[in-house]
Structures are given as C-alpha cells and as structure tokens.
Amino acid sequence: MATPQPRFDTGYGAQVQRRVPDTLPRTLDEVGGWYRRTDQLVMDWLLGYQESAGVTGDLLEMGAYLGKSAILIGRHRRPGERFVVCDLFGEEPPTAENRRTAQFYTKNLTRAAFEFNYAAFHSESPEVLQAPTSELPEHVKPGTCRFVHVDACHLYNVVREDVQIARSVLIDDGIVVFDDIRSAHTPGVPAAVWPEVATGGLRLICLTPNKLYATWGDAKPIQDAMLKWLRAQPASKSEVQQVTGERLIRVSDWTTPPPCPVPPNGPPPARSLRVTPRAKRIVVDLLPPILTRTIKRARAAAQNRRTAS
C-alpha cells in the first residue's frame, strides 16, 4: 500500500495537515495552512526592504499553526536577531470561548508537526513559546522587534491585547501584520484593529485579500518603495486609496502567481514512467499479432533460402 502523503496548499486555498507527515515537505506549498501567494510575496518583500534599509531588530510571530509563514519569516533572521514563535500548539486554550473557536483549527495540532515542517527548511529552530500570547511580555522586551505577525486567537478581546503587545515590542519603524482582517468568520480582528488606525496612530502600508500591513512609524518611505516594486511586477494588481486621511496600497492577487519566494529544499522527485492507455492498448492488443506476423515472415524467408540453395 502506498504511503499517504500530507495534503497541501497551492498558495490560495487552505488544507489542514492533521499529523506529522512521513516525509519532509520539499516546498512551502506542501506545508499545511492558510498563506496566499500574494502575502508570501508582500511579506518577503517587506522583510527584505527592512534589511536593505538597515533596519535591525527581532522577529515575532503570534500564532504559527504548522509553520508556513514562520518558514518564510525565518529566512530573514540575521545574525544576532531572535525569532520568537508563540502558539498553543494544540494545548487547551485558557477560556471556554477560545476553546469553541479553536476546536476545528487546532484539533490534533502539535508542536512536533510545526518543528518537523520548519526543520525541512532551516537548520536552526526559532525560539518557541508554547503559551497564550498574553505571556509574551515576559519573554520579549519592549522596543526590540522590527517585524511582528499577528495570527493567533481571533476573538476581539484577545486581538485587542495582541495589538497592544505588538505596539509595545516593535521598534519605532517596525512593521506589524494582522491576518484575517477581511474574513467574515473573524469579525473580532477588524473590530480590534481598525480603531487603532482611526485613533491609535497605526499607519497603513498595504492591504491584501487576507492581511493588513502597517506601522506605528513612518509608512511613506515603505509605501514609496513598495509602489515601485509593484509597478515593476507585470502581473501584479494594486491601487492607492485614502483611509482616515492616510494613503493605503490595496494589493490584489497577481493575475499569474509568481513562484514562491521560499525555494525548494531539494531537487524535485524523480518522475516515474507512466504508461498511457493508448500505449497499454498497443502492447496488449496490437503487439502480439505484429510479433506473430514478423516471426512467420522470418520463418518463410529462411525456408525460401534453404529451398533455393
């Protein structure tokens, strides 16, 4: 019996990996989770922009699931920087409301599955905090992070607390990313985030179909550079809008998705020979009569030669 393979996400949909697979994922698409190709490209560009601009600081992810976005973020950790990942990894959430919302997404989720996937692409693990995000202030100092990805519990009260944790740990021009900002099943996320835009000093960078990218610093130089990058992408789709008097870049999905920014961790598997139905019909139905006729003709030719001699 063939070994079952883990289900995976093509970059636009979502598949749920329920166990540690039997083989290491070779590409990011083979890691279970929800992570659009558009966000892979935008997040990779923003992290690269920080590095080219000389921005230094640690990396933080609140809510990692099976490691899909962590794998990409981890590629941008530089010497001397920490990468902290905080997730319950299947442990029981602290409140009954949390448990109701998490029963589908975290069922059978384990830290081992996350570490297995991450190790397929990285030789060094991140610092893992298996706990609610409310414990992060004890482990991450204020003003130390350049990039924070918020994708943990989607309940309003929790997201509101996560917003303030992100604000505390970020450096002045650090970037924060909020997942599920536009999803109908996560109304607590926009309810907690948009007031921070309206009155809390959070400045918009860009909005994708799933995530909001912003900063409590100066968004203008980031946006100027991003617009140049997007306009150089022939298949990208974007527009500029004004929200609460601030410029916002709205990024749609690429018409033709570019390759994943995380390269495969090994060569593609060897292709097995596939016998098509037509080839099988030739072998099964036609080849025996052809061989029979060829053998008869050869025997007849040999007999004619013997007779002539």
Automatic annotation (TrEMBL):
InterPro entries: SAM-dependent_MTases_sf. Residues 256-270 have a biased composition (Pro residues). Residues 252-273 are annotated as: Disordered. It comes from the Bacteria. Pfam families: Methyltransf_24. This is Class I SAM-dependent methyltransferase. The lineage of its organism: Bacteria, Bacillati, Actinomycetota, Actinomycetes, Micromonosporales.
